[in-house]
Design goal:
Elements: H1 9-14, E1 17-20, H2 26-35, E2 43-46, E3 52-53, E4 59-60, E5 67-74, H3 85-100, E6 106-108, E7 112-115, E8 122-134, E9 137-147, H4 163-167, H5 173-194, H6 197-206, E10 213-217, E11 223-231, E12 237-239, E13 242-244, E14 251-254
Parallel strand pairs: 1-2
Antiparallel strand pairs: 2-5, 3-4, 5-9, 6-7, 7-8, 8-9, 10-11, 10-14, 11-12, 12-13
Helix pairs in contact: 3-5, 3-6
């Protein structure tokens, strides 16, 4: 029988996190609050998300008390041209939080959080950053869904995993969320200070895509194949001498 404790509402309230028992989409809720003038670092979490959205408009639904599902509001000061770093630094924050809890996480570019498994690496988190217009200027809504307690039957695709499946351990989701937000604040501050130079080395260290031969499927049916050699100052993946922007990529897969 699966044991799934609730998130601790008292500890989350002390951190200023609003916790909902159920919500269609935390990104949609935070977007509405942002347009009503909510401050930066508003955080809304839910135990059960029923109609969330991932990248490319994929549905992201989480079983009750099985995941960390939350969104936060950011009002970045760097120019919009530097914002492609936001989803990358979010992925780095998730990896850092998992490593804080002795979970051997890594990144597949741009922000797929991967855990080792018997059939190779599998994805355990979804990250979506949406730029929105508000009365006080542009803002970013960052949504994160991290699989913690899911069984294999509850995962949306065969290439996904959860912390429980990958490690056999049951983490305290409240403590994990605390770590994740601390990591997110750390890397967000580094990015705000220098536009990505301060976090690039940490990202490169965590990125398992580098050094591999990959096939990148681009919009319009085009493909790029080659060795992934670097992540440049703009957060773009360098493949065979060509820099690929995160917003243009559909899939990055090992060749063969």
């Amino acid at each position: 029988m699966l044991v799934r404790p609730h998130l601790d509402p008292t500890r989350l309230a002390e951190l200023g996190i609003e916790l909902l028992p159920e919500a269609p989409s935390t990104n949609a809720l935070v977007t509405g609050r942002a347009r009503a003038g909510a401050p930066e670092w508003l955080v809304v979490a839910t135990e059960h998300q029923t109609a969330g959205r991932g990248r490319l408009d994929r549905v992201w639904e989480t079983p009750d008390r099985a995941a960390l599902t939350f969104s936060t509001l950011l009002r970045p000061t760097p120019p919009v041209g530097d914002w492609p770093w936001l989803p990358l630094l979010a992925g780095l924050a998730v990896v850092g939080a998992l490593r804080d809890h002795r979970v051997p996480a890594a990144l597949k570019w741009p922000n797929d959080v991967m855990l080792p498994g018997p059939d190779g690496e599998a994805k355990t988190a979804g990250i979506l950053v949406e730029r929105i217009d508000t009365p006080t200027g542009s803002a970013a809504v960052l949504g994160i869904g991290l699989n913690v307690h899911q069984s294999a039957e509850e995962l949306p695709v065969a290439t996904a995993t959860s912390v429980r499946l990958a490690t056999g351990r049951d983490l305290d989701r409240t403590a994990l969320l605390e770590s994740l937000l601390a990591q997110l604040r750390q890397w967000y501050a580094a990015w705000s200070a220098d536009g990505g130079a301060g976090l690039r080395a940490a990202y490169v260290e965590a990125c398992v895509t580098l050094g591999r031969d990959v096939r990148v499927a681009l919009p319009g049916g085009r493909e790029l194949t080659g060795r992934a050699t670097d992540v440049d100052a703009g957060g773009r993946l360098v493949v065979g001498g060509t820099a690929v922007a995160a917003g243009d990529v559909v899939h990055v897969r090992p060749v063969g």
